[in-house]
């Protein structure tokens, strides 16, 4: 009797199961090839190492998954999308929006880590500023090819058939913003996070209007690493809950929300006219204290606009605006002497840094110390206690800067050791210094 059909009947489910398992398995990678752009909102070479929000996020995920990372920079959005389709990389981490068109084209997006809005950006004193989409008709408008901005314009053209623009494959958004500033084109469109950073370098840029709908930024995954989707979701949930995502976003964007056109123009002029006279003294103080000279120069500008004879109604004086008691404590005998003032101010920041608890991470220690320089260490200590009582993390600047303004409200300060303080001032103080420092680092 031939038992083969009988045996096959019972073996068939097992064979199908084995086949399904073999088809569903994948070889997990030990190295991620990450495609990105070289830009301040993505990935760039900083003073000592690579930096950028995408760089920090990818490295965080790679640590979570115990993966090595290799970065490959591409010149344009078109190059990024083409490369991931060809399988030349595993992940695109380049600040790209998850749009319906990109989804329809089969791109595999991970979860959103940031939301932005598209903004029409033009230049001050360069003709009439558009206030709505209709006003763009007849303007020299250029956007990056295959960008989410191009998608938005195509939707607008359905209602505005006269609307025209140029889509350029070779220029990225940052280059187009520079072209607007140089009056080579009238306007472009950019994500709000890109605009916030670049307006400091090109202060004449102005946001003409903002599209209401926000868009999520997310990574694109190649077919080979689609299995990482759930891991990315778990990791993103983790860094949201433990505050790491807030720290990364604050590092790159927390100080760019305040923009003062007049102040930034004046600052850039004084970099050329005033700073050279004092630069060597900032560098010497930096060598003596280990604090970067750009930060010292940025703080001095916030304090006195690099005016060694500056004086406030409260009696603080000089380049670093020292009180009489503080000056004595750091060995300054003449507050109007810029060399003494710079050295004394640097020593005082160093002193504040030493008082900040070791539980505060290195980057945030600097912001805590600057806040203490401005409002007094006692008030910073009060703010940390208040943060703890409000369920916030007293060791994180992203939390402390939301608590400091509460020191001016009686229901909070009445129970604190050092009492009332104008807590909004140190927050603005730190933001402005961070702004000035980044401009200095990018232009000098």
β-strand number: 12
| Helix count, DSSP H or I runs of 4 or more residues | 19
Helix content: 40-55%
Number of domains as seen in the coordinates: 3
- The secondary structure category is alpha/beta
3D structure, described in words:
The protein is 50% helix and 12% strand. The chain is an alpha/beta fold. The protein folds into three domains: 31-113 and 218-253, Periplasmic binding protein-like II (D-Maltodextrin-Binding Protein, domain 2), CATH 3.40.190; 115-215, 3-Layer(aba) Sandwich (D-Maltodextrin-Binding Protein, domain 2); 263-443, Lysozyme (Orthogonal Bundle). The strands form four sheets. Strands 4-1-5-12-6 form a five-stranded mixed sheet, with helices on both faces. Strands 10-7-11 form a three-stranded antiparallel sheet. Strands 2-3 form a two-stranded antiparallel ribbon. Helix 15 packs across helix 16 (377-389) and helix 15 (362-375) packs across helix 19. The chain starts with a helix and ends with a helix.
How is the topology of this model organized?
Elements: H1 4-24, E1 31-36, E2 44-45, E3 50-51, H2 53-65, E4 68-73, H3 77-85, E5 91-92, H4 100-104, E6 108-109, E7 114-123, E8 142-144, H5 148-159, E9 166-168, H6 173-181, E10 188-191, H7 192-198, E11 205-217, E12 220-221, H8 229-241, H9 244-253, H10 261-273, H11 275-289, H12 293-304, H13 324-329, H14 338-355, H15 362-375, H16 377-389, H17 397-403, H18 410-413, H19 424-443
Helix pairs in contact: 11-12, 11-14, 12-19, 14-15, 15-16, 15-19
